[in-house]
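Sanity check

After download, print the first record. It should look like this:
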Amino acid sequence: MSGLKLFRTDTTYSGMAEVMPRLAEIEADMQALVEAHMEVLLGVRFLVSEYSTGPVHGGRIDSLGLDENGSPVIVEYKRGTDAGVINQGLFYLAWLMDHRAEFEHLVRDRLGVTAASQVLWSGPRLICIAGDFTRYDVHAVREHRRSIDLVRYRLFGRDLIGLETVASVSGGVQVSCRARRGAVARAAGDVQGAAMRELAGAVDEVLLGLGDGVNRVERKTYRAYQRLRNFACLCPPQRSKLLVYLKVDPKNVDPVPHFTRDVSGLGHHGTGDLEVQLRTLRDVERAQDLFRASYAAA
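Expected structure tokens:
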């Protein structure tokens, strides 16, 4: 975003004016803006602001939330560049892992019993939102075995905000592409044999290979592929097909029978309103533009 330039066109006089980027006046302004629209901006349901970690720990978490997959999320904000934001967030993340019952009680009070029963403790996340980060920050997050997203913000004019993911690291153990493909293939193979093994492995490899910072989150009923937000959810194989749900507006896609379907308003596992049905490796090739569009939207 440091190299991004935004211009406003004047269609009346065929003019062009640059909209200059700026930082928030104070950190609290940025925090209030994100908390008011957290689900739209980050794919995270907002729980509480300025949460006290108690007199012994002596901290105050900027924002707590729950992401699309049920993972606990801590969001920390800095107006500009602050070398301490990552360590501060990790300090709170350690507290959170030691106070799971307290967090689940909070989720139950704010989002209900069902949400509290589905909290995914295998992948708690830290999202740091700041005016900028240094190369040392980017290196530091890659040294930690935690799910951490560094997000740079800029405000443009009175009504525009830009968010850029500077670094995104999964808390899971990183394995080779071949090993990832083999793990998914074995799971599919229990259901349908060699054809489904190959298909599931191909989909997994394509989605993981769309860009840096793609994290994979395992749930009982689906596997989510996540940038800052989910961009694809892969369900377990059915008898003869795989279902992938994407964050693509179905209204912008010409429906193809037995390939794409608008499922907005319909119940299904995972997130996303566009269902893609995959039966062959050729279907995976056909779906790649849709995969890329969903990845870009995330």
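If your output differs, re-run the checksum step. Summary of this record's structure: The first strand starts at residue 6 and ends at 10.
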